[in-house]
């Protein structure tokens, strides 16, 4: 299942840590913050914007 986020929603979402914009990685089902280096999961179509649930970019999401 591929994640989809409406463009208008993606425009208003921000990283809770850095307050920077997020970009969608639909294949990985994540919202990426390049500034903080965090990837937030999208579960059942809902972005989980909790720093505790994010993974550092460059780490294996299945580890």
Structure description:
The chain is mainly beta and 63 residues long. The protein has a single domain (7-56), classed as N-terminal domain of TfIIb, CATH 2.20.25. Helices cover 10% and strands 27% of the residues. Strands 1, 2, 3, 4 and 5 form a five-stranded antiparallel sheet that branches. Strand 3 (38-43) and strand 4 form a beta hairpin.
Summarize this structure as a short list of keywords or feature phrases.
Trm112-like; 5 strands; 63 residues; 1 helix; UPF0434 protein RIF23_08790; five-stranded antiparallel β-sheet; globular; mainly beta; N-terminal domain of TfIIb
Question: How many strands in all?
Answer: 5
The count of domains is 1
User: What is the H/E string?
Assistant: HEEEEE
Q: What's the CATH class label? A: Mainly Beta
What percent of residues adopt helix (DSSP H or I)? Answer: under 10%
Provide a compact summary of the structure.
The protein has 63 residues and is mostly beta strands. Helices cover 10% and strands 27% of the residues.
Write the layout of secondary structure elements.
Blueprint: H1 7-12, E1 23-25, E2 30-33, E3 38-43, E4 46-47, E5 55-56
Antiparallel strand pairs: 1-2, 2-3, 3-4, 3-5
